[in-house]
Amino acid sequence: MKTFPSRSTGLLLLALSLLGTFAVGCTRYPVTETLSLMGTEVSITVQDVDERLKGRLVYAAIDSAFVEIERIEDLCKWNELSKLNGYAGYKDYQIGSELIRLINHAYDISAKTEGAFRPDTGPLVDLWGIGTDQARIPNLLEIDYTIELMNSTTFTPLDSVNARLDPSRAKLELGAIAKGYAVDRACEVLMDLGVKAGMVWAGGDLRVFGAKPDGSPWRIAVRHPRDPEKYLRVIEIREGAVATSGDYERFSELEGGRYCHIMDPWEGAPSRASISSTVVMETCMDADAYATALFVLGPTEGTQLADYLGFPALMADEEGGKMHVVETESFKSLVSE
Ligand code: AMP
Ligand code: MG
């Protein structure tokens, strides 16, 4: 068995070095800081600030945004969500209104994608253990049992802060939406503190906001799923979020086959429908979740759903070693070269 660590490089950023720098107070822009958070590299770039962030105060604003990302990671992984999961089938737990809202939103997306994206996929993720030392191919009985457990999972908010998860062994897993939500929150912190234009980039997910001083759009390159040195498309956007789910991000080699970390909830197994899916949406939370959902649906159904819901998507699958790319017309209109 061979296991590969997470390496989320879905989107490459091209344009920053081309922008030229400019000075506000004594700081030259753009300013970029990078930290390892949520199992990936997180980069924050500030392009323009208002008078509240004179001099080196911009670095304090960036630090506050990183702290916010750590808070979301704690909420969605290590602390509140993990406690709710631990108490499944046993008792309710005070997870707080923010997490209740996020889980409810995840269930809404689950309904809109007919269950391709599922917040209750935790037992399936654990069963296969893709990307961990415990990765293995489970038997059909285990898979059937796990699908049944997911299908009987209920999340019940009891009031604005308390919630309950049933039955015992049920497990919510927000790995496909929490990173995007953290990016959104980091952008909000930056804006609240006086950043007029900037970008937060976390592995395969990013969001940009505000106009750059020279008025040009943000240029974003989508990684080629089979060659990290190349990109599939370069797009231009002025505002919004772009997220990519790729089978190269985390995977395990088991009994001669390659299995990725994105689960097909109907098959109860790692999805083979796509090798990459990229979506452009207003918020990074939605972009993150829909990129995962579309991956599971595959390029034909995935781009149909994107058209139906009204957002741009770019998808790729592979057959007999040949890559096949499908994109919505709305995505084509964003492509700059
Ligand atoms: P992403 O890289 O955003 O596509 O998210 C993948 C992560 O989300 C996985 O590592 C799992 O933790 C979780 N996940 C896998 N399959 C699904 C699914 N079908 N719906 C929701 N979350 C999933
Ligand atoms: Mg995702």
Helix-strand pattern, N to C?
A: EEEEEEHHEHHHEEHEEEEEEEEEEHHEEH
Total domains, how many? 1
Q: What's the N-to-C terminus distance?
A: 41 Å
User: Approximately what portion of the residues adopt beta-strand conformation?
Assistant: 25-35%
Biggest sheet architecture: 8 strands, antiparallel
Structural class: alpha+beta
Q: Averaging pLDDT over every residue, what do you get? A: 92
CATH class: Alpha Beta
Net shape = globular
Query: At the third CATH level, what is the topology name?
Result: T-fold
Q: Count up the helices.
A: 9
Shape-level CATH architecture = Roll
Q: C-alpha Rg, in Å? A: 20 Å
Can you give a write-up of this model?
- With 337 residues, the protein is α+β, with helices and mostly antiparallel strands.
- It has a single domain (1-337), classed as T-fold (Roll), CATH 3.10.520.
- It is built from nine helices and 21 strands.
- The strands form six sheets. Strands 5-6-10-11-14-19-20-21 form an eight-stranded antiparallel beta sheet. The chain has a three-stranded antiparallel beta sheet with strand order 1-15-16, with no helix packed on it.
- Strand 20 and strand 21 (322-327) form a beta hairpin.
- The termini are far apart.
- It binds adenosine monophosphate and magnesium ion.
- Adenosine monophosphate binds at residues 117-118, 121, 125, 173, 175-176, 245, 249, 261-263, 265, 288, 292, 296.
- Residues 176, 243, 245, 288-289, 291-292 line the site of magnesium ion.
